[in-house]
Design goal:
Tetracycline Repressor, domain 2, globular
């Protein structure tokens, strides 16, 4: 599935940098990191290639901007449902949908984290930010970082496995996979 499209009103209110990041995110999600270049990103955003370099040093820098936006959008959506009675399932649905919608982008993220130290560092920083967030939850008072890290990694890995179709051949259907992610969410968020 392609990245969610923006309507024309949204695009008109964006800055040049925002338009470049939005175009890059779509392109990375369609073609992957290795399948595009900065000139193509600039043209897709409606700009000449030199405009790209007024805002970003290189393709990696815009990839990191797209990644940070991806993380913030995912967490904003989760925050919006956190108070619901069925928050564990609602958050699991958000995570799975976000991973599904950005499957190629996520694959590029994993691939490039092994190849580029800046991308690896951004993933680590994002993970530490997530850890800091869940440590603040009252239900996690006194829990070790190791326990919380294990649960955060389980959520991420499960979501990628579901999205990449790894669980179906193991006899785990979509509903069971959803429950698995929701159970992991409940553990890390103190709902279970």
């Amino acid at each position: 599935m392609d990245a969610p499209a923006r309507n024309n009103d949204d695009m008109e209110s964006l800055t040049t940098r925002d338009k470049l990041v939005a175009a890059a995110a779509r392109e990375f999600n369609e073609k992957g990191y290795l399948g595009t270049d900065s000139n193509r990103i600039a043209r897709l955003a409606g700009f000449a290639p030199q405009t790209f370099y007024r805002h970003f040093k290189d393709k990696t820098e815009i990839f990191l901007a797209a990644y940070r936006k991806w993380v913030s959008e995912e967490y904003a959506a989760m925050d919006a449902v956190a108070a619901r009675e069925d928050a564990d399932l609602a958050i699991a649905d958000i995570i799975l949908e976000h991973h599904r919608d950005w499957q190629v982008f996520r694959k590029s993220l994993r691939l490039m984290a092994d190849r580029d130290e800046r991308i690896a560092q951004a993933r680590h920083e994002s993970f530490l930010w997530k850890l800091k967030r869940v440590k603040k939850l009252p239900s996690n008072a006194g829990r070790s970082d190791a326990a919380l890290i294990t649960e955060l990694l389980a959520i991420e890995r499960l979501a990628d496995a579901v999205t990449d179709g790894e669980l179906a051949p193991l006899g785990v259907d979509a509903q069971a996979a959803r429950v698995m992610v929701a159970d992991a969410v409940a553990k890390v968020c103190g709902m279970g």
